[in-house]
Amino acid sequence: MTGQVEGKVALVTGGASGIGAAVAELLAQEGASVVISDVDELKGPELAAALGRAGHDAIFLHQDVTSETRWADVAAEIEQRFGRLDILVSNAGIGILVPSIVEMSLDDWRRQTAVNLDGVFLSVKYCLPLMRKRGGGSVIMMSSLAGLRGSATLAGYSATKGGVRLFAKAIAMECAAAGDGIRVNSVHPGIIDTPIWRKDSMGAPSGQNAPVDPEELARLATPLGRAGHARDVANGVLYLASDASSYVTGTELVIDGGMFAGTAPRRP
Ligand code: NAD
Q: Is residue 4 part of a domain?
């Protein structure tokens, strides 16, 4: 099936890399005009240009999702250029690993929360009015398996992703009560092979994390025995963005190779 989001306008935050880039690419291939926003001024414009060369409609906007003033500008730019917004994918995120919570600095906790939680709050605050003007839309918030269950070393990250999970449900109820035609859902990836694992600090500024090999981790931890691809998550986002999910709101889509379901020891 093609054209699943034909004629719609989508904003993907953190769209320059990994899951966000795969989402931007798939939504564009399925007919949406895509706004890629990110702090990465190299990969973001490159991806928008590559999608343009492939005949799709995509632009890049530089955006730090923690900046409220920039959110106001981004929403205004989208309205001016496209006159509408149908799909919001609040995807930008960082992960700060700490050996123990007692070693986590307050600055790191605040940075973790600013990107993963404040950024999602601001995305909704500034994009809902745009969506409401056109009578509906789909908001997809990128949570994590770490927003469903705890992981040692990821307490701060888990706090933000658990927050995103319930924030999505609360906004889904607010939109349903308003009858504004906006659906809101969260996505919960497990171990997905993206650059986040190989960044010194999983995208965080302090540089304290050692890079992790997601494939090795997933071989042991995942019932399906492998890491997921960014496209696996993008396929779920496409479903939630498209009219195929028109009766789906306030739910959580887990894309994790079976990790949340249980353990499946492999026979040699
Ligand atoms: P990634 O590092 O490849 O991509 C994240 C993108 O977000 C980058 O392009 C980065 O520049 C951008 N970003 C970071 N801080 C930003 C900010 N302040 N403003 C705007 N953009 C910013 O990582 P990914 O794996 O593609 O992660 C995407 C989302 O998926 C994140 O929310 C992450 O927590 C979530 N997630 C990832 C995995 C995984 O295994 N890869 C698992 C569960 C959840």
A: no
Q: To test the ligand 1 pocket, which listed residue (13, 17, 186, 232) has its Cβ within 8 A of the most ligand atoms?
A: 17
Q: Is 179 exposed, middle or buried (0-12, 13-18, 19+ CB in 10 A)?
A: exposed
* Binding-site residues, ligand 1, Cβ < 6 A: 13-14, 16-20, 38-40, 63-66, 91-95, 115, 142, 144, 189, 191-192, 194-196, 203
Q: What is the DSSP string of 43-63?
A: HHHHHHHHHHHTT--EEEEE-
Which CATH number belongs to the domain containing residue 184 in this structure? 3.40.50.720
* pLDDT 10s digits, 125-172: 999 999 999 999 999 999 999 999 999 999 999 999 999 999 999 999
Q: Are 234 and 255 in contact (CB under 8 A)?
A: no
Which domain, by its residues, includes 171? 9-255
| CA of 196 relative to ligand 1 center, distance in Å | 6
Does the residue 244 lie in any domain?
yes
Domain assignment of residue 2, yes or no: no
Distance 81 CA to ligand 1 centre (A): 26
pTM of the model: 0.97
- Per the structure, the count of domains in the chain is 1
CA of 226 to the centre of ligand 1 (A): 20
